[in-house]
Structure formats: structure tokens, C-alpha cells
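TA notes, week 10

Several of you asked for a full example with nothing omitted. So below is the full record: C-alpha cells for the whole chain, then the designed sequence directly under it. When grading your own attempts, check the secondary structure regions first.
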């Protein structure tokens, strides 16, 4: 009974402080209550019983385990209780340290950001790299506008092709029902069908252009900008820990302060390495992005020009040759429609 009371009492405190020494954790009452509930709600070995008889046997066959005083069982019970207690305490310490580290880092970065915003803090500046980043953001905005206009052109041109298709069918029908105007309706129907066919070919080229621009803007450029955001966060953390180290270096040089300076120096070095690594990643990605952008846009602009020129010149052969040159395959009519099995 004494072991049980001591086991429950041991779970009432989680000895943690900022240095990892023994101490009470007053900031985490909810976690402490959860741990108490886990430990208290577990099975009490002193209250279980062993049934020596069969099912429905006499009451004399029940032997309370509390009356068993063997040394091996007492040692096993205390060992398992201590093991569970230590494991629970270890998890609590790990969670507390993680939250503490996150909170401290957030505080330092927020302080640095506010200081920079009001002009009281210094920041690390790479003028050449920041100029390249700004150029990329401006280029992305302009390419997004090109993508928006190209999509609008595709929608308008698609509607025109559908109208030409419907108009050609109407002319063909009237050609059969109006003998006196059969020839006139007939060649107008043929003209609209030819325009419709060429329009579908041009739509294939424009759709390929739109798809390639969309990949460049929303995947390739966005991936580089994501790395840039990581770099900017690392720069903010680096400046925050640099400012913290500079403030500590200006203070007194007693034993406690020297220990804090050593810890700050270690954190400064860690964040400096992270900042330099991400800076190198951004420079490499910007270089490859520029090369990829020139290569992609050279091909796509040539495709767009040749396809548009051939269509409005009425050169069907050149239009089809342009699609073959860029390996663009048109979908057969009705390919977008679901099959009769899918409609069921």
C-alpha cells in the first residue's frame, strides 16, 4: 500500500526547469493532469485476484493477490512502476524542451522583425541577390498576366470555333432544303467547316503554349520562390541570434554571462551555417531558372508565332507542319466526352 501511494505521489510532480535540473513544472498544468490521469487510471495490481477454481467455482477458490508477499513480485511491481514513471517523465521533458525552444526562437525573430520595421535593428543585406529576387518576382507577375491573357484567348477562340461548327452544320442543312440556293449554302458550309478544322488545330497549339507557361510560372518559378522564402526566414533568424550575441557581448563578463555568451555563440554559428546554405541554394536555383526560362520561352514563342501566322494566312499545310515540328498531337473529336460505360 505504501508503494502504491508513493507511486501516485511521484506522478504529481514533473521535475523540470530551463537547465534540465530537478524542479517543478508549474507552466504545464494540463500536461501534468493528463499524466496523473494516465498513471492513476492504470490497473492496481494489489486489487486483482487469482481464481484457482473453474468457471462458477466457490468463493474459497479466490486468493487476493494483496496477501502474496513474495519478494520477487514486490520487486517486479516496483520496477515496472518506476520504468513507466521514467518513460512518462522523459516524454514530458522532450515536449517541454521542444515548445520552449520554439517559443524562444519565435520571440527572438519577432523582436528582430519589429526592430527592422522601425529602423532600430540592423539586417544582413546582399544587394546583388536581393536585386535578382526582385527581378524574379516582377517577371513572375508579368508571366502570370501573359498566362491569364492566353487563357482568355483560348476561351474566346474555342467559342468562335464552336460557333463556326454550328454555322457550317446550319448551312449544310439549308443547302439540302433550299434547291434554289443549294450552291451558295454549300460552299459557305464548306468554308465554315474548313475554318473550324483549322481553328481546332490552332487551339491545340495555343493549349500547348498555355500548358507550358503554366508549368513555368506555377511550378518552376514557384519552387524557386519557396526556396527564397526559406532563405528569408533563415536570414531573419540569423540576424536575430546575431543581435542577441552582440547585446550579450556588451554586458558584464561574470560567470553566468559568459555561459550565456557561449550558448549564444553556438546558436549564432548554427543559424549562420543555415543562412549561408540556403543562400547558396537560392543562387543556384536562380541560375538554373533563368536558363530554363529562356529555353522554354524560346520554343513556346516560336510555336505561338508560327501557328497564329499560318492560321490567319489560311495556310493549312504550314499550320499542320508547325504542330508536327513541336510534337503536338491533337485529340480526336469527342475524346473529351465520357464513354457510354462511364455515363451509366
Amino acid at each position: 500500500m505504501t508503494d502504491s501511494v508513493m507511486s501516485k505521489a511521484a506522478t504529481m510532480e514533473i521535475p523540470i526547469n530551463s537547465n534540465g535540473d530537478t524542479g517543478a513544472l508549474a507552466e504545464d498544468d494540463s500536461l501534468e493532469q493528463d499524466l496523473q490521469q494516465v498513471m492513476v487510471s492504470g490497473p492496481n495490481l494489489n486489487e486483482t485476484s487469482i481464481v484457482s477454481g473453474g468457471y462458477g467455482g466457490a468463493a474459497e477458490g479466490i486468493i487476493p493477490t494483496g496477501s502474496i508477499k513474495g519478494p520477487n513480485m514486490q520487486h517486479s511491481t516496483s520496477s515496472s512502476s518506476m520504468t513507466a514513471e521514467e518513460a512518462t517523465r522523459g516524454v514530458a521533458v522532450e515536449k517541454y524542451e521542444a515548445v520552449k525552444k520554439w517559443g524562444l526562437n519565435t520571440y527572438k525573430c519577432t523582436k528582430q522583425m519589429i526592430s527592422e520595421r522601425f529602423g532600430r535593428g540592423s539586417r544582413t543585406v546582399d544587394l546583388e541577390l536581393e536585386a535578382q529576387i526582385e527581378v524574379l518576382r516582377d517577371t513572375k507577375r508579368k508571366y502570370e498576366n501573359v498566362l491569364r491573357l492566353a487563357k482568355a484567348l483560348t476561351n474566346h477562340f474555342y467559342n468562335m470555333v464552336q460557333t463556326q461548327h454550328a454555322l457550317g452544320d446550319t448551312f449544310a442543312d439549308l443547302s439540302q432544303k433550299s434547291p434554289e440556293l443549294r450552291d451558295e449554302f454549300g460552299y459557305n458550309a464548306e468554308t465554315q467547316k474548313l475554318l473550324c478544322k483549322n481553328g481546332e488545330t490552332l487551339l491545340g497549339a495555343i493549349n500547348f503554349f498555355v500548358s507550358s507557361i503554366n508549368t513555368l510560372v506555377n511550378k518552376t518559378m514557384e519552387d524557386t520562390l519557396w526556396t527564397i522564402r526559406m532563405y528569408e526566414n533563415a536570414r531573419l533568424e540569423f540576424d536575430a541570434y546575431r543581435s542577441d550575441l552582440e547585446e550579450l557581448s556588451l554586458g558584464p563578463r561574470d560567470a553566468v554571462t559568459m555561459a550565456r555568451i557561449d550558448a549564444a555563440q553556438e546558436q549564432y554559428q548554427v543559424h549562420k551555417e543555415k543562412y549561408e546554405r540556403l543562400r547558396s541554394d537560392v543562387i543556384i536555383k536562380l541560375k538554373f531558372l533563368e536558363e530554363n526560362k529562356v529555353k522554354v520561352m524560346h520554343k513556346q514563342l516560336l510555336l505561338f508565332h508560327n501557328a497564329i501566322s499560318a492560321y490567319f494566312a489560311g495556310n493549312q499545310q504550314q499550320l499542320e507542319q508547325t504542330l508536327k515540328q513541336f510534337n503536338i498531337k491533337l485529340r480526336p473529336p469527342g475524346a473529351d466526352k465520357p464513354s457510354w460505360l462511364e455515363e451509366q
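The longest strand covers residues 49-51. Use that as a sanity check on your answer.
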